[in-house]
Protein 1
Amino acid sequence: MTNWRLLHTAPSNGAWNMAVDESILEHIQRGESQPTLRLYSWKPACLSLGHAQSFLDVDMERLKSRGWEVVRRLTGGRAILHTDELTYSVTGGTEEPVLAGGILESYNHLAQALIFAMRELGLPVEMKEQADQPAAKNLNPVCFETPSTYEITVNGKKLIGSAQARKKEGVLQHGSLPLTGDLTRICQALIFKDEAAREVAAQRLLARATTIQSVIGVETDWETAAQSLVRGFESQLAIQFQNGVLSPSEEKRAAELVEQKYANPAWTERL
């Protein structure tokens, strides 16, 4: 068994959520924190962009009119609207057995825990063995439209969207599990050439992605999903969790990262 820290943090804004994950990663890289599974949610709803995604994808007028925020992740991938979901972050050193190797190897390891958790919740999930090949010059800004290798699907639709950042001595993986709600809301926060294109994107998303409630017909609360996720990590990855909190140093660094990076237009609004 490997000892990890388990963090349940209160619903928070996008800048703080992303700053906390990077702060944990920095502390792990220096050997000052344990490998960590953090489970959290977002308040208010927040559009997160992948590390290299252009801010030109964002329709700021529509986004602000709905009271939503926008943030840029440290991890890659495309845009996700975080609302009505459970978000997980896995942070650890590159020597950790479940994170060792490359991106695909660690994705595969972590997917075993996710599969266990989803099946425990009653979802007939599968693991995508190979990424779908997007059409040439596909400029779709939405993360959930196309499953990547080793991501979790149900009835051919993407259920959990994950993305990873690997540094020399540390790994951070984010994942988004939609519990309920209308997945097409994200299309109201993104730029399309016209309203017809927006509607096409929304219908395409519904055909290719899903939520827990859409699959099993009942709403699963955040705590129930979180408990299943923890049991999946314990059962499939031989991890033993200890409930923890952020250290004073992690809290301080997170506050610095909010001000210097995640709430700073120089980071968020990159083109």
Protein 2
Amino acid sequence: MAAVAALFGLVIGSFLNVVIHRLPIMLDREWRRQCQEFSAPGQEPPDPGPRFNLATPASACPACSTPIRARHNVPVLGWLWLRGRCAACGERIAVRYPLVEAFTGLVTAAVALRYGLTVESAALMVLCWALIALSGIDLDHQLLPDVITLPLMWLGIVMALAGERLGLGFGVIPDLEASVLGAVAGYVSLWSVYQLHHLVTGKEGLGYGDFKLLAALGAWLGWQVLHVIILMSSLVGATVGITMIVALGRDRSLRIPFGPYLAAAGLVTLLWGRQACQLTSILCPFTSP
């Protein structure tokens, strides 16, 4: 069961690489088109060029634009077979691609082992895949797209409603009340931190995408674990930020995306919820329920 889930996760990971790379480009083109329409209403829109979406064109080398052959596009193995280089031009292929594929396979297998092959585990796999895609996009562009975060939040609420009305007996996905409260509390909590930080410093400490991502996690996991997610993500984010400043000499004003830390905390809570709650209780006793 876990092996099948892992193989399926590898395939999904290959698709997530496409999403991470192409979705920001698609959004940028759409924003530019809308700006053009707003600034010059009534004018003929510029030629958008060749069709570009998640399916078209076929995957190609970023350096030489040579289409990638099917045998070279096998998750992880294709990269290893080519020794991390393009078969046509020899340019290096980023190691991130097989890492995303391998990590997606491992997480998918972990969910299958933890919760079996059920409707709930299938839904939780979708949550995990979305978190991986959001993390990659945020690391590259400091962007958490609404086209992922908002549907993810609503899907969590719908799953809670389905579990309650259909009597599916979900173990992780909460009931409808806890899901809705989780979405509201998740958004409001980080929004409040943002407003307070902006009031004191005059600077933006968080992005609105972070609010929506935590709202989505609250919808999927319930308001009861939000303190665990916030504490874990804050501790890891602060540790990484301090390390980058001290060890790597980075500027203190450097913006560090918070989305990957929220996503990682959400994954840990999903897979090891009880242990995560115990850990946060030890680190910060006043958060104990």
Protein 3
Amino acid sequence: MRILVVGEILWDVFPDAERLGGAPFNLAAHARRLGHEVYFISAVGDDPRGRAALARMRELDLPARFVRTIAGQATGTVSVRLDSAGQPDFTIHRPAAYDFVSLSDEDFDELVSWDPDWLCHGTLHCMHPQARTLTRRLVEALPRARRFYDVNLRKHSYTPELLRELMAKATAVKLNDAEATEIERFFDGRRRGLADFAERFAARFGWELVAVTRGAEGCGLWRKGEWVEARGYRVQVVDAVGAGDAFAAALLHGLDAGWPLARVADFANRVGALIASRAGAVPDWTPEECAALG
């Protein structure tokens, strides 16, 4: 499976450490670990953090062909505070280099020839006008690619207008239960459960798949009228940063494998739980370790 991911690459700055992250970067790295072909589009600054990010991509065997170095802009950072349950609160520092990524006509030609199966993006990156324009151009240039939209709402980094635009372009959507509530508040004010949300909004926007994560309680998946729920896996949470992004990569992996929806949901829950049990958004892990979770 060929996966094209566009969005932010940044450093999660904890009180005691810095770890490379950004939801789209995390998704790309985990999809690569699952054996898929991945290109990641983003940008870093010409600074020590930017050089360290590129070095880490090489370690992860994640091509940096479309990661630009932007002079005069700092590599992205986010200050992260974890609560007692390991759940993160983010303070995003912008503008950052990833806001100013661009592609040449030759780059677009190469991506069209590569012919990705999925184009993946989130919300935060598209708040910047240049990044939003880039995402629009990619959608137009790659009509065959299915579009995976990870809603991933962050404070002061979304508007109803932006959500409407991105949801209208999506083939598959991933969000958590709190984000589903926020979207309902914006668009119709109804609250009748997650299965009803998935059914209604899929009909409204033409989605083929909806994934709703519920933390330790697991997830629900909707596909073409079928709704399944899968239990979560209890782990000692070290930090939950990146767990949802790993879930997303595992979700795409299971869909590509043609598994039944219940098996896809279970595998995605296992991967997300394993990542939450380790420090950092992209720790070392193997699918075999996920299978051992009970």
